[in-house]
Amino acid sequence: MKMTPQLLKAAEKMKAGDISRDGFFGRDERDLAAILDEQHAACLRLGVSYERIAREMRRIGHAGAGGFGAPVEVDGKWSVIVDENRGKIPCPWPHPGVYQKTVYTVENLRTGRSARYSELTIHMIFTHGFFQGEGAPFYNSPATLVDVLEIAPDTED
Amino acid sequence: MIEVFISMGVIGGIGAILAVVLELADRYIANYGECAVDINDGTRTLTVEGGGSLLGSLVAEGIFIPSACGGRGSCGYCKVKIAEGGGPVLPTETSWLTPQEQKNNMRLSCQVKIREDLKIHIPPELFLIKEYRGRVTRITTLTHDIKEVRIKLLEPEAIEFQTGQYMQLTVPEYGDVEESVYRAYSLSSPSFEKDEVEFIIRLVPEGICTTWVHQFLKESDEVTVNGPHGEFFLRDSDKPVIMIAGGSGLAPFKGMLRDLARQHSTRKVTFFFGAVSQRDLYHRELMAELEKELPNFKFVPALSKPAEEDRWQGETGLITDVVGRLGEDIAGSQAYLCGSPGMIDACIAVLTKNGMPQAEIFYDKFS
Ligand SMILES: Cc1cc2nc3c(=O)[nH]c(=O)nc-3n(C[C@H](O)[C@H](O)[C@H](O)COP(=O)(O)OP(=O)(O)OC[C@H]3O[C@@H](n4cnc5c(N)ncnc54)[C@H](O)[C@@H]3O)c2cc1C
Ligand code: FES
Ligand SMILES: [Zn+2]
């Protein structure tokens, strides 16, 4: 993938201190297109589309919302804490859209492994296939999310 | 095939370069001279340097148009009506404007560049919003993640507002944050305190403003706030009041209760405050004092998951369950809600189920 004008604009907004205190790249020094290519390839290897990963993040995260900050057990498999904050944050891509500053912490009760992500993370994965750079706040690799959220490979139909 | 991709890449690259060149040319070469912005049919006329955004120019002149995204075209809050000038609606605006709004010449003021004289219309109450310079007089740690910040106003020295409204705090450049941004915070001080304002600020994970407040802001620092904003205030009525809050949502109620105490009010007020465990509770002494001063006031803290060491004797359960237990007794009351949108939605569902009309339920819709 090439750095299109859209990606150049998004990458500019992703720098630390623009819309996010720590930015979206973490320690990853590659350009946005290269990160996207690598993360799309990782999803293909795992046999799970990024849209499905995002849908599971949303389903399990939202199921914990009724706890108002206290842990909620979801499907007997996960303990979910939802920290819902007032205010909204825009997506770095140049399109309309603001996302509640909600942070989800999902712990897999069987393995003890966990993932922490925000409402914006879910949107970026679902719409742009972007999991952020390693070391960024709310970064989780596709493999971590598939593992913690126990997502089975997509079935061909 | 590869050639097609290469030529697409080249065209994309040229497009990107052209866009940047045009943007730079517009910013540094184009000279639009001075332009006049007529507001509300001559109520105010500004003379501004052409080329800047309408939102930026209005804010620079002390007219604070609502914005949640800092002028990035991604919140849709900065709508103003442009009666003359402003050029065609841009693609970055269309998804925020209904066909009716477009017909009525509504525009996103952050996207409109001032290149000619403009005539615009804004709600008159926006003229009352001012920017204040102040000095931090006290920072109090209320819980593991909540601080209370008190600010003495320096210029202007006094503010008029309705208790319960909110202000916007300017975050200066710090660390990687190279452009100042602002965030909304409810006033926790009552309107009779005109020379000082107070806020209750909860740390948000990796947040720009709350990191600055919790880790960098010190007593005696100078800060800038603008306001007042919002329509959250106690309505004049004899109806019993139910207040419901969680986290930093206690802020506006602190001000309202102090206002009622000063008026020696006998209005019936029950304040339900939801928290996870005892470490999230604060201002209990203040609430106990207010219970003594206000004969018909009751503070009801409720913990959803008290820790064993809390030895909690009070109400237990989600705040919605605790309010739900009141049943239809609440039907003739008014409710005031402040907290996360999820908590507000869940409380509205419980209140309306128990017979409270929507029109008697108040909260900051903006949050
Ligand atoms: C009307 C109103 C009144 C309010 N009153 C109060 C009040 O009285 N007290 C109070 O404490 N708050 C209040 N707020 C909330 C306040 O305005 C701020 O939104 C809040 O304090 C967070 O600001 P921040 O700059 O610290 O966070 P921001 O930096 O704006 O946002 C941080 C959040 O954005 C997301 N995010 C950031 N970076 C990334 C990334 N790389 N990847 C994915 N997600 C990311 C995460 O969810 C993160 O937690 C109010 C809001 C409104 C609208
Ligand atoms: S300020 Fe957010 S869209 Fe204009
Ligand atoms: Zn997006």
Give the biggest beta sheet of chain B. 6 strands, antiparallel
According to CATH, the homologous superfamily of the largest domain in chain B is: Nucleotide-binding domain of ferredoxin-NADP reductase (FNR) module
What structural class do the secondary elements of chain A suggest?
alpha+beta
Report the mean per-residue pLDDT of chain A as an integer: 95
- The helix content of chain A is 25-40%
Helix count from the secondary structure assignment of chain A:
5
Number of strands of chain B: 17
Strand residue percentage of chain A? 15-25%
Strand content of chain B: 25-35%
Helix content of chain B: 25-40%
Report on this structure.
The complex is a heterodimer of chains A (about 160) and B (about 375). With about 160 residues, chain A is α+β, with helices and mostly antiparallel strands. Chain A contains 5 helices and 4 strands, in the order αααββββαα. In chain A, helix 3 packs antiparallel against helix 4. The model of chain A has no long low-confidence stretch (mean pLDDT about 95). Chain B is of the alpha/beta class. Chain B has 3 domains: about 35-125, Beta-grasp domain (Ubiquitin-like (UB roll), Roll), CATH 3.10.20; about 130-230, Beta Barrel (Elongation Factor Tu (Ef-tu), domain 3), CATH 2.40.30; about 240-365, Rossmann fold. In chain B, strands 9-8-11-6-7-10 form a 6-stranded antiparallel sheet, with helices on one face. In chain B, strands 15-14-13-12-16-17 form a 6-stranded parallel sheet, sandwiched between helices. In chain B, strands 2-1-5-3-4 form a 5-stranded mixed sheet. In chain B, helix 6 links the parallel strand 12 (about 240-245) and strand 13. The N and C termini of chain B lie far apart (about 50 Å). In chain B, about 40% of the residues are buried. The chains are: A alpha+beta (about 160), B alpha/beta (about 375). The interface of A and B includes residues 15, 69 and 96 of A. Bound molecules: flavin-adenine dinucleotide, FE2/S2 (inorganic) cluster and zinc ion.
